[in-house]
Amino acid sequence: MAEDTSGRPPQKQYDYLLKFLLVGDSDVGKQEILSELDDGSSESPFCGHSAYKTTTILLDGKRVKLQLWDTSGQGRFCTIIRSYSRGAQGVLLVYDITNRWSFDGLDRWLKEVDEHAPGVPKVLVGNRLHLAFKRKVGERDARIYASKHSMAFFEVSPLCNFNIHESFCELSRMALQRNGMERLWRSNKVLSLQELCCRAIVARTTVYSIEQLPLPTCVKSHLKSYSLTNISTQLKYTHSTRKGNGKKIKFVSTPTSPGSDSSRTSCVPRNSCTIS
Q1: Within a 10 A sphere around the Cβ of 177, how many other Cβ atoms?
Q2: pLDDT tens digit string along 239-273?
Q3: Handedness of CA 149, 116, 92, 13 (dihedral sign)
């Protein structure tokens, strides 16, 4: 393979990097959860007493790379994992819905997490939903526990790949919000198809011409509402940006009666801005 001699740094394959811990007893199925994620690196670069994996998810149009650390499940973290947990940005607290003891032991894990990673977002995960016929932990009990400790809650099934991706997306969203990334992340999110269609139509017509389009009444009503909202926003922005320059802004009214020719040919809204 030819080497890159351009001198440019390699382009990153992600927009955000987050470090998450999976904690819980050794038999709750944390490795089952990790096995459902797309493979990145799966070999821990530090400690042999923990499992490590990376994966990349798409969150509102942004690529988020996750470094996932599965603790040994023993009562104590290994020394390196305990040090690493101080830099964790999120925690998945995992229990087995068929094992009441694993749920009752969550307080011990919460204490451990709060000691080494205080204040990080947490998601409570009830694993092995496909064994619900053997359930020993009620969903209502788990939701109450999660609400009490300000955690999001999911019941997942690695066998059916149910809620695995959703739980990591929710934890990623919580971590980005906590670290002040929400403003940057929201401004770049992917627009819906409806938003794109409204933007394209409104950009090529006026709010008064929408009624003549061969569209259903409900669609035309939505387009008019969208157009008026955007016009109002643009007028406020124009007024705020010109106010400091000492220039006056006045509104010029154009004829809009149905019988006038100007209403059919004019592409200027009734309340258009001119600067004198």
Answers
A1: 14
A2: 554 555 555 545 444 444 444 444 444 444 444 44
A3: positive
pLDDT tens-digit map of 211-220: 888 888 877 7
Q: Which single residue is written with the structure tokens 């990153």?
A: 12
Sequence letter at residue 65 = K
Q: pLDDT tens digits, residue range 73-114?
A: 554 544 545 666 767 899 999 999 999 999 999 998 888 888
Angle between helix 193-202 and 217-243 (nearest 10)? 70
Cβ proximity of 51 and 115 under 8 Å? no
Residue 57 forms beta bridges with which residues?
64
| Burial profile 42-80: b = 16 or more Cβ within 10 angstroms, e = fewer | eebeebebbbbbbbbbebeebebbbbbbbbebeeebbee
Contacts of 56 (CB under 8 A, 6+ apart): 13, 14, 38, 40, 63, 64, 65, 66
